[in-house]
Structures are given as structure tokens and as C-alpha cells.
Amino acid sequence: SRATVGGGNRLPGIRKTKAPWPPEYLHLADRLPPLGLTTLPQEAVNTHYHAHLDIFADGKKVTVPALIGINVGAQYLTELHTHDTRGVIHIESPKANDHFSLGQFLAEWAVFLNGRCIGAYCNGLKWYVNGKQQVGNPQRYVLKPHDEVAIVVGKPPAKIPSSYTFLAGE
After folding, report:
1. pLDDT value of position 6
2. Cβ–Cβ contacts within 10 Å for residue 83, how many?
């Protein structure tokens, strides 16, 4: 499936900088085809679910911005997008049983991610799904409905989140 698409870190616009990371639109259209993402005129719901992403860098929560994967100026959105700053990733595809990875979302957002680093933070990256520490490259992780994904670099937060309270209907 498309979710295994690799090489996202070599795409145009990818940032190895410190947070904050606003959505990157300049090169977004160039990144989408290699990521297996498409420009959709409106939300599609043959596949429709949500996951939640928390990022902690040196003990501080990093904001996952609104409008990742939504290019208001060009009037399109992609299968992976955010509407607000809660960290909720909307996974909405015209294809049934479609799958997408954490790496696709981070590359769409234009933030460098591998097993060691997120952006410029490379000091002991750990990642968790529903509170359980994971092994391997987080880029390859396929997002599932109502996942709580936490990426932690440097000093960890007091508590690793193990779940997220989604809004009704999410």
C-alpha cells in the first residue's frame, strides 16, 4: 500500500530545524506525488478516521499546526490533513480501506523524521503508540483509528499520553 512510501526526507522543503514548524505550502504540490498523496477538491470519506499526534521536544509540547495538507490558496486538500491545532490527523480518502503512515504525514508537513530525529532534535528520540514504547522507524508506522502517537526527544514529559479524547463523531 501507499503507506510504505519512503524517502520523504529527501523531498523539497523538508526542514531539519527546531520547532515551530508551520505548514509548508511552497513545495507541497511537489511532495505529494512521491508520497502517494493527491490534491482533492473536497473531503472524501470512503476511508475516514482520525488519529492524534503529540510531539514533545526537551519536555515542551510542540504544536501540530492547523491546515497541514490543506492549501487554502490553491483550494485543495489531501487525504491527510489537520483542521486545527489539537494534533488530530484527519485520514480521509476516496479509496476504501486506504492506509497512511506517520512518515507520509510528517513529510507532507515538511518536517524531517527518522528513527533518530524529528526536525533538528536528535537527542534520544523515542516514540509511543497508545502509551506503549515502539521500536523501529516511526516513518513506517501505519496510522490506525483513534491512535495516540507520541514522539518524544530529549527530556520526556511528566506523563506519556496513552489516549486522546476525540470530539463526538471523530
Report:
1. 58
2. 14
